[in-house]
């Protein structure tokens, strides 16, 4: 148990936040982030993502929370010396230049002066801002501020980095650079926690994700775990399959290789969908189809994207419509 | 801890260096100090303006007590009208946005997500903002003190008390601004609210001063009339005679004055006591300038006019008896002294207590609030 705890950068249990006016932003969030992994937090607007991040960074006080951050209770100020944080829509003082920004926030994170100088030079180079280091932040573009923000999060050589919309306003080159930085942080065994709307960006870098919907964690795990039940094979034919033939196919599927609660086999026009992620499971089917004279146009393995997962999570299964933004009012669901 | 405090201080220095108002105020402070203490000198005849014109005022000749009083009076005016009002208004204009910007969305997250207690972060930020006024006042008062010493040989060390005292005066006002900043996060609300607060505080003090002045004047008139009656009655008793017509007229007039003044005193005194109680609960910004004037031994207005040898008696109306004029002038000066009379310990103590309450409230809101 102790080993498991030591291996967790973030261990949140039963996090609640109710704002004045009785708005229940968080309704019992449970979440684990392992050390050294890149973790993505997703969710629609008003799901409580920013509230959760701000609670971690002690910007907001939770109504109830029994979690730990780097082994210390959430809100433990001294622990924040080991955390780097890039808030969404951050604003640096306009009267400082890039180097001074890094120096100031580094000092607030208790980094020694000599280390600040060295780190600032390294990080400005890392984010491609060395040439602008002496210019006032007031003259920076949004992308440049974002790059500087990323550098700022790393000034204290953190064990945990929390990025809130890190690629917001950044051009494609900048995005790639930030992605590379995240990958480098992972190589350095640091934990990265990313809150972002850009699902494709997250899909490229995250080891695990959590989807927050209406103040609770709807799904959590590796992409592999989350998509396992939805993976399938799709066989595309040139002509629609006769009804008799489709009835012959279902018994050919080995039950132990099927996944999920969905229909093991479904036919829609020229497409046959098989709920399995085992290539061996579809071989008898292919044989029977060929024997029946069917012409196979393609066979492909289908894995839902993060966007598919996200849409599933935020869609009301009863109505098929997106869930209302924000946490529902009233008591715990 | 030192690293963080030092970083916030350095940040404040960078911030105030970036504000035009800081440099404008600093220039005016220096210019005013040079004008008031460097543009003239004292010689055997009186005051010499720059290097070309001497105004003959024997009481202000070099080395006389009058010249010392003159410098003290000018210093008191410099503190009262520039450092105590003008410079503080500029400082409020320049600093009222600092805390709202500090707590605004996007900036506050960067500041709070640090290994520093919220109350320490807030107090350090607030106190480092005082640098704005501290630098202004240090330059202004320091220059005035240096010029007075170097040019006139008047090394009046109590003048230097103006540096912490004027900074304290700003702190009285800034405590309210800080509270507004954490509640509203609006620069405009901070600026307008603080100026309104200052106005209310001014009104309380102005009312109290006016009542004190009135009370002291009337008490002086009462005492003068009683003294004059006593003197005449003693003379009559010593000489074993009845008052002559002129003495009877005077006695009637003085008794009449007592009859007029006593009800006024009786009516005003409860108001004075009430206002003193009310004053205990507000930061007394105006008292700071009086304390500085007292420390510098600056003369009150009537005494300052006397330094120039102005014969105030020529303003006496023909119909007014000389003794009545004399008594009214004495009463006038007594009123001015009453306004100037400040118990520094009580004034600063109660003002600091009020300021602490405001800062405490601001710190409480800052430490408890969700940003």
Q: Count all strands of chain A and give the number.
A: 14
The helix/strand class of chain B is mainly alpha
Largest sheet of chain A: 6 strands, mixed
Instruction: Work out the count of structural domains of chain A.
Output: 2
Mean pLDDT, all residues of chain B: 90
CATH top level class name of the largest domain in chain A: Alpha Beta
Order of helices and strands of chain A: HEEEHEEEHHHEHEHEEHEHEEHEH
Strand order of the largest sheet of chain B: 1-2-3
C-alpha Rg of chain B (nearest Å): 26 Å
Strand content of chain A: 15-25%
Unreliable spans of chain B are none
CATH superfamily of the largest domain in chain A: P-loop containing nucleotide triphosphate hydrolases
- Quaternary status: heterodimer
Helix and strand topology:
The complex is a heterodimer of chains A (333) and B (371).
Chain A (H helix, E strand, L loop, with lengths): L1 H5 L1 E12 L3 E12 L3 E5 L6 H8 L11 E2 L2 E2 L9 E4 L11 H11 L4 H14 L15 H12 L6 E5 L7 H16 L3 E5 L3 H7 L2 E6 L2 E7 H5 L4 E6 L5 H7 L15 E4 L2 E4 L4 H13 L4 E7 L3 H8 L20
Parallel strand pairs in A: 3-8, 3-9, 6-7, 7-8
Antiparallel strand pairs in A: 1-2, 1-4, 4-5, 9-10, 11-13, 11-14, 12-13
Helix pairs in contact in A: 3-4
Chain B lengths: L1 H16 L2 H19 L1 E3 L3 E4 L3 E4 L8 H31 L2 H6 L4 H5 L5 H12 L1 H22 L9 H23 L2 H53 L5 H35 L5 H11 L5 H7 L14 H19 L3 H25 L3
Antiparallel strand pairs in B: 1-2, 2-3
Helix pairs in contact in B: 1-6, 2-3, 2-7, 3-7, 3-8, 3-11, 6-14, 7-8, 8-9, 8-11, 8-14, 9-10, 9-13, 11-14
